[in-house]
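Hi support team,

I submitted a single chain yesterday and got back a structure, but I'm not sure I'm reading the token output correctly. Could someone confirm the output below corresponds to the sequence I sent? I've pasted both exactly as they appear in my results page.

Thanks,
R.
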Amino acid sequence: MSPFVFAAVLGAALLHAAWNAVAKVGLDGFAAILLIAMAGGVASFILLPFFPTPDPASWPYLAVSVALHQGYNLGLIAAYRTGDFGQVYPLARGGAPLMVTLAGLLVLGEPLDPGPLVGILVLVSGVWLMARRGGGTGLPDRRSVLAALLTSAFIAGYTVTDGLGGRLAGSPHGYALWLFALDGVCAAVIYLGVRGWAGIRALGPALPAGLGGGALSLGAYWTVIWAMTQAPMGMVAALRETSILFALLLSVLVLKERAGPWRLAAGGLIALGAVLLKTL
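Hi R., thanks for writing in. Yes, this is the structure output for that exact sequence:
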């Protein structure tokens, strides 16, 4: 992975942590997550005329990814209903890099040297330690664990799908914008079907934060899709999960939340894994 791609993925991880912080906009999880998806769709529709249309060879991947993103949104909402954010979020994110790495090795035949593989394992260990002790009281209940692991599978699925689709699209930028545009439309249909027009009106006070979160989300995953055309998907997927480290730093430095020794140790492992990915 080149230094420029490495830095870009770290930047995407920071954006990802930022939009998840913005997701706490005073709405319930269902409304907040779908509002951000809808806002990302609006931003994408504005930008679509300025970028090439993806090659038709990538359209099946685009369709599958849109469906997987809806599963991800709904799985994350279900996990947050009964679980603590500090544990559910790392647990949902933590399994995906391993799944993506295995898919890259066994299915796609992507070469991965032992050094980067060690970095991925160290980083994922930190993510899982954060999930184990992130809320301070062990794992969340069984329903939250199952929902989080299902969400992790959706993350791995759309990551591999978008890695392949972005490579076939001719323009990963056009692919990313069409993905977010279609995802926003689906999110709007789901939200409208569940909450109705009264629910749409209720989003008004949170709209500025939602638009900001949508822009951050678009920028973060747009960068990741491009990066997967430049480097092995497993490495990009693992490095992306440094978003959990950035979330920890934001909570301590900006929100003035207390971080116990377990969270600090997990953050250290995540940081070490990122360093190993770059240096080994």
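A quick pointer for reading it: The two ends are 11 Å apart (CA to CA). Let us know if anything else looks off.

Best,
Support desk
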